[in-house]
Amino acid sequence: MEISADIVFSKKEFIGFVRTDFKAVYWQKKTDASVQIMRYDLTSHKIDALLPDGYSAKSKIYEYGGLSYYICRDKIFFINQQDQAIYQLVEGPKPVLVIEAYPNYRYADIVFDEMAMRLYALQEEHTKKSVIHRIVSIDLTNKEVTPLREGSDFYSSLTWCEENRQLAYLSWDLPNMPWQQSALHIATIEIDTRLSFHQKLVDKKDVSICQPKWGPDKKLYFCSDETGWYNLYQYDQEKITNMYPLEEEIGYPDWQRGFSHYTFVYDAGYKIVAASVKEAVSKLVEIDIKTKSAKLISSSYNYIDSLQGLTYNQVALIAGSPTTGLQVIIWDRAKNSFHPIENPSKSLPSENISLAKKINCRTKDGQKTHGFYYPPSNGNAQKAPLIVLCHGGPTGYTNAMFDLEKQYFTSKGFALLDVNYRGSAGFGRKYRDALRKEWGILDASDVLELTQFLCNEGKADPEKLIIRGRSAGGYLVLAVLTFHDLFKAGASYYGISDLQMLESDTHKFESGYSSFLIGEGKNAKKALYDRSPIHFIDKLSCPIIFFQGDEDKVVPPDQSENMYLALKNKKIPTAYVLFEKEGHGFQKKENLIKALESECAFYKKIFNLENLKDIPEIKIDNV
């Protein structure tokens, strides 16, 4: 059974960022180029879209955005995509404008001070010379905006305790990314917005903090990687306690605002329900706050995210399994049962699904690297054409959850290798930090060694090895194809080809990232040049197809275009697909379909794959 690109993107659910109150479950859902706020009513079991036409909940803060709506007691606020203003949802045809933003401001991380009728929020100001971040107070009565904290390069993760009148938040400074080193603060805010108390709770070299939350016991919880793993901690009266020491990860690098990997339930004392990750596979655990003991919650899910307490014995979350895509789910603790709110997005009979197999191998330097192997679901698994997937970030990870895009390729006779190279999250701090100053070298080596391992096992055709990736994964594609000769073709989605240009063009959030990935000083300048594929076209001899959005602010279009033109001039088969009004990551369904079909058509032509039927032809230069 072959899958079409239209099926991939008509069935694929782009959902995230669950939030709850005692009456309903909410989540964000992408609908083509906009983001809707969905609501599931616990009483009527009805699902409604809350935003009227013309509105979309999408903050652009730090360029990657994230959670863009906020459940504040009985009020719902959201960041509107077009003008980045804060609106409040009310009964009636239109939301009410709370504070204007366009063109100089962006907002996120909104919390509500009910007693003072104020919002506290993260504000991003764009001036002609710089981008400034601060925490502000927004008076809902007179719309006055008052700065509360500024001076650090970045702030995030605001969480408010009404009873204590305390705000907790994170900060960090360049050149760090938040998962390299960040600080946890707590501040007491008086009714008149004065900060009567402020304390920096945690600020240690090479220690990252994420996901602070006030518990129902009025104590502060947060994730820290001080032990080498993102464990969960409790702060109570100057004492900080590791709630559940283990070599697994509850936290995740803060690429976006609003991640939530733990929450609270009540049963003869408060308990924590958390999603713990080991080697890129999630599991649910329940931690007893009083005894610090934990137990595993059995489930079929291997990816779990966005946990939110719903009632005393229920948790809402997002999860996926090897046979189902992302779903919004309610877990009933008393029955240990999982109830999808919407029907699963699975669109294949189980016999047609290619299930991931965890693989790893020892590298030449004696370490271990990891990946997931998907055999073809249609065709011979022995010496099949192999597509190697390089995840983005590079500080991210890939999982083995059901994904129609992966099944699209396996249904056409391709095998897949999804690599979690050293530098990936989900394997502990040491594994994540292994990429320090080694970007484009160590990750490339891991990709090559895992691919060769599969060839040696007879699971891949050495003459039909393909590599594909997006963003930083696109850079890895170009680096592997330029500096090594194992692969025979590649696909780069908004990939980086010129590290020097990226460093000068990139936005503030990632402006210090290369100091970790490449280094600093004279040696770094040389490394930026030496690891940029654009300078070594003479080493490149295999076909590549490029995909790019013309409004990409993270990886500007000239990164792809320059590489494409160089290959074209060198008479190497190549293609360049530019999408109008698309940024870093394509949103429009028709563009997603065109990209996937064009990529498959490219492989069909390059490798003369006659078994691929009904694939629209594309223009390929030098063929």
Describe the structure.
This protein is an alpha+beta fold and 623 residues long. It folds into three domains: 55-151; 152-259, 6 Propeller (Neuraminidase); 350-607, Rossmann fold, CATH 3.40.50.1820. A hairpin with a 3-residue loop joins strand 21 and strand 22 (270-278). Helix 1 (5-11) packs antiparallel against helix 10 (589-607) and helix 4 crosses helix 5.
CATH fold naming of the largest domain: Rossmann fold
- Proportion of β residues? 35-45%
What is the name of the CATH superfamily of the largest domain? Answer: Alpha/Beta hydrolase fold, catalytic domain
Number of strands: 36
Q: Which CATH architecture of the largest domain is right?
A: 3-Layer(aba) Sandwich
**What is the global morphology?**
globular
Q: Which structural class do you get from the secondary structure elements?
A: alpha+beta
Radius of gyration: 24 Å
Any idea of the CATH class of the largest domain?
A: Alpha Beta
Major sheet strand order: 29-30-32-31-33-34-35-36
Largest sheet, if any? 8 strands, mixed
Number of helices, counting only DSSP H or I runs of 4 residues or more: 10
| Mean model confidence by pLDDT | 94
The low-pLDDT segments are: none
Number of domains: 3
What separation lies between the terminal Cα atoms? 30 Å
User: Can you give the helix content as a percent range?
Assistant: 10-25%
